[in-house]
Each structure stands twice: as C-alpha cells, then as structure tokens.
Sequence to fold (192 residues):
Amino acid sequence: YWVDFSTGELVAWNKQSKQMKVLANPLGPSDVVKLDDELLVVAQGWRALLSYGQAGGDPETLAQWKCDKMVGCSGHGVASDSKLFWSLLALDEKKGRIMRYDAQTKEVTEISPRETDPISLAIDGQNLFWISFGTSATGRQDGAVRMLRLGTDEITTVASGLLEPCGVAAFDGFVYWTQRVEGKIMRLRVGR
Fold:
C-alpha cells in the first residue's frame, strides 16, 4: 500500500496478479500504514487521520487537527503499534509536533510540541523514531533522527547534523534513514 502524493490516491499492489488498484482518493494524502485490517492515512487536505478498510471505500475519521495556533500546519508521517502516531508540520518550521491517537479511548495527545519539520515515522516495537528534516536557514544541514521510548516520555536524538534526512525504518535493533541529497541509506544500532 502507498499514497501517491501527486495524484492524491491511496493505492494497493496485488503481488499475485501484479496489478495495482486505486482504493480511494483522500484529499492530500501524505503517508499510510497498515494496522490489522485497516489502512491508516494522514490526509493533509482533510486535516485528519483517516481509517480505510483494505478494500477502500469511505473512510472513518479517527482524529482531526486545527491550525489556529499553527498557521499552515499539515499532517505528514504515520506509524502504528497499539497506538497511532503522526507528525504535523508548520510554516514556522520549528513548531512541528508529534501526536498520538489512542484507538480505545479516542484520545489525542501531543507527544513533542517543538520539532523541526518532523516528516517520517517508524516503530520497532519498543521505540518510535522520526526524522527532523532540518531548517531552511542552515540549508537543511541540521536534520536529525529522534526517538521516543514507548511507554515513557523519554525523547532522545540518536543522530544529528544530517543533511536532509527523509525516510526512516526500524527493525532488528537498528534504525535506518535516507539522506536525500547524498543518496545514502544510513544505519545505526539502537539499544534493546
């Protein structure tokens, strides 16, 4: 599953038939993650976290956000374990946020309120990782990989001084990220 940012489509790929199928057209999708039988999409145009069945159809709105205090905010990355996490960007690039949604209580919590352009998220079962893209004033040379130990409020920076880090993934005791300008995939062991 993926979102096509340019066409605004939620897309599925069938490995057996080797065909892709457009499942939905959420307004401004930026990321998708599969959780059980649901596809969870951050839709910038709707300013919402949406849930779709695997066949598509009409979404259920799980959470919405307002931008009154953060003009120009938009949702970006999404990751999931038993709770859902997503990031919000802002015109003031130092006021991005990491948010959490609890599906049982329907509660939305702000995890980290002053992130620098948080764009991509990943979970390894014990930690939530995200990319801090960096500020335009430095030519995006101050990017970082940040980490929250799940079940705590402990946020740390695991890598810093990065040039335009983008995607992030985490598994088998490592966090991986891409550095777009340099065309590199980086890896760092994280504590278990």
Observations:
- The two ends are 29 Å apart (CA to CA).
- DSSP finds no helices and 18 strands in the chain.
- The first strand starts at residue 2 and ends at 4.
- The mean pLDDT is 81.
